[in-house]
Amino acid sequence: MERDGHSQEELDLAAQPVGYWTGVANAEIIGFIRRQQAQLGFTQPQFWMLRHLSRNDLSADGHGMTVPELVDAMKTYLRAGDDLAADAETSLDRGWVTRDAGGRLWITEAGDAARVELKTHAPAWRERIHAGIDDADYVTTLRVLQRMMRNVGSELL
Fold first, then answer.
1. How far apart are CA 88 and CA 45, in angstroms?
2. Nearest CA among 97, 18, 95 for reference residue 52
3. b/e per residue, 20-59, with b = 16+ CB within 10 A?
4. Which residues contact 25 (CB under 8 A, 6 or more apart)?
5. Which of 4, 100, 116, 144 fits a 20 to 30 Å CA distance from 124?
6. Per residue in 7-36, pLDDT tens?
7. Other C-beta atoms within 10 Å of 112: how many?
8. pTM to 2 decimals?
9. pLDDT tens-digit map of 74-92
């Protein structure tokens, strides 16, 4: 049955709750990325930690940070169950970071090299996530989600 040029499937999909589907999509996609990273022997929070400590990435000055400062910097994307203190200890053991007397973590040359190596895998993961989705559809999806966020008063946009 069609109504106003829309199939029943389209009408059914249009009635679905966006909050549910964005939550499920977030969990599935982040889960996929984290599984891929685990196969390579690191966690997503370890990667973010290296990015926040590297002057070649998110850190403007390469200044060390304490675990609580890193947690604060990453609060919008850390997940329940993430243990940045444990990830910092593993990163210390691997020689990716050092810790000074004030408890600040500093990225090492080995840590920055690991960050660069880990980052090389992202394009393949993105390609798999985006398989069968052209850029125009992806852009439309993001614009729709951003509009919905503005509609509900989001301060993120």
1. 9
2. 97
3. eeeeeeeeeeeeebbeebeeeebbbbbbbbbbbbbeebeb
4. none
5. 144
6. 888 888 788 889 999 999 999 999 999 999
7. 18
8. 0.82
9. 998 899 999 999 999 999 9
